[in-house]
Specification:
The protein has 399 residues and is of the alpha/beta class. Among the domains are: 33 residues; 231 residues, Alpha-Beta Barrel (TIM Barrel), CATH 3.20.20.80. Helices cover 31% and strands 12% of the residues. The protein has a nine-stranded parallel beta sheet with strand order 9-8-7-6-3-2-1-11-10. α6 runs parallel beside α7. The chain is globular. The N terminus is likely disordered.
Length: 399
């Protein structure tokens, strides 16, 4: 009996010792209080600081002007003697921005990137020192916009025919001998977005995408050409809607990818798309594209319109054409929750090809009339196009 009692005492003592030791270990995590009713206190957990989102800083400082009033400069002009003349023009007037080709109408990168760049093989040394160019623009506070021609790309189409449209065994070209790459393919998207990112790294403050569309008249050949529908292959959409989806999706994708680089994103678009639900062949839907950009730049050169807005010869009536267009565009943009800046392209060239009686020589009066047409409808930003970069002198850019 005594042996049993002794054995029981040993067990009880050992149990008390074990509980005390175990309690000591847990006290490091769950401290116990000596109240009659035990209370378990969970340790306070600190929420880790939010991971900082990557944001690129090019090192340049440009103030966004009161309103962009800009001109176009080809890569040859930006990298040549004409550059200083264009800087002087802007510096001596109310102009304040320059749109510069970074990927041109053929598909070439217009400067030579560092060794190892995936774009080295498509580069030309038109702009020999882009850093010096941007430093000059910063010095003069001329807002730099990088023009990237997207789907019109004879260079990539020739190098990679499977990324283009084929007519039999050959890459299809339009009447001007220009080839397009396929907007349905994400590899094509990434090619262009990658170039846009490089432009942002150089110091450009805005990326302007041009030719964000299928070839003109594509609705007439969408079933005869050979091409890949990519991720849109299984879509139940009509061919027209597939094209609209591809173009819109590219713009949204580019905007997202460029977000960390602190650049604005703009798109050039045919002016007439604002007057239609959507352009069936080229895949441009004005409202859908406008939802994904900071700036929308409609090309509304009076010479490029047929009889529209009740104007039989639009090139002869620049104020009326631009004003009537702006009314329609405002109606469309007012329906968008996050309305982008409207910054149309205006005409600073003479369209003599329209024939006698259908055109007028464009000079100071006609350019100011277009600007006034925008201003009277509440649009204060604009860009001037002259393919040769030879701009009219003596213009009042804030009439």
């Amino acid at each position: 009996m005594k042996k049993n009692i002794s054995f029981l005492v040993i067990i009880i003592v050992f149990g008390i010792f074990y509980v005390n030791q175990a309690g000591s270990a847990e006290n490091q995590i769950f401290p116990m209080v000596s109240h009659p009713t035990s209370k378990l206190e969970m340790p306070k957990k600190t929420i880790p600081e939010m991971v900082t989102r990557f944001e690129f800083n090019s090192g340049y400082h440009f103030e966004y002007p009161d309103a962009i009033r800009g001109i176009y400069a080809s890569a040859h002009s930006a990298g040549g003697d004409r550059f200083s003349q264009l800087v002087q023009l802007i510096d001596g007037t109310d102009l304040n921005a320059m749109v510069i080709d970074v990927k041109d109408d053929f598909g070439y990168l217009t400067y030579v990137p560092p060794e190892g760049s995936p774009y080295k093989s498509i580069s030309k040394d038109y702009i020999k020192d882009p850093t010096a160019m941007l430093k000059k623009l910063e010095e003069k506070q001329i807002y730099p916009i990088a023009r990237v021609v997207v789907f019109k790309d004879s260079v990539l189409a020739t190098q990679r025919p499977e990324l283009s449209f084929k007519d039999g065994d050959k890459v299809w070209t339009n009447g001007r001998g220009e080839a397009f790459v396929n907007p349905f393919l994400k590899e094509v998207w990434d090619h262009n977005v990658g170039i846009a990112i490089e432009a942002a790294k150089l110091g450009f403050q805005e990326i302007q995408f041009d030719y964000v569309r299928f070839p003109e008249g594509f609705e007439k050949r969408d079933r005869s050409l050979t091409y890949d529908y990519g991720e849109y292959e299984q879509s139940s959409l009509t061919n027209v809607q597939k094209r609209v989806a591809a173009v819109t999706d590219f713009v949204a994708y580019a905007k997202e990818k460029l977000e960390p680089y602190n650049v604005k994103v703009s798109v050039d678009i045919f002016g007439y798309t604002a007057t239609l639900p959507e352009a069936p062949g080229i895949g441009q839907n004005f409202s859908k594209i406008s939802e994904h950009v900071d700036v929308i730049s409609s090309m509304i050169y009076p010479s490029h319109w047929t009889s529209y807005f009740g104007i039989p010869r639009p090139d002869i009536e620049p104020y009326r054409l631009v004003s009537e267009y702006a009314k329609v565009e405002n109606q469309k943009l007012n329906q968008i929750e996050n309305r982008p800046i409207s910054r149309p392209w205006l005409q600073d060239f003479t369209a003599s090809w329209l024939g006698k009686g259908n055109y007028t020589v464009y000079g100071k009066e006609e350019i100011e009339a277009q600007i006034k047409g925008l201003q009277d409808q509440g649009i204060n930003e604009f860009l001037l196009w002259n393919a040769a970069n030879s701009y009219t002198k003596g213009v009042d850019y804030t009439p």
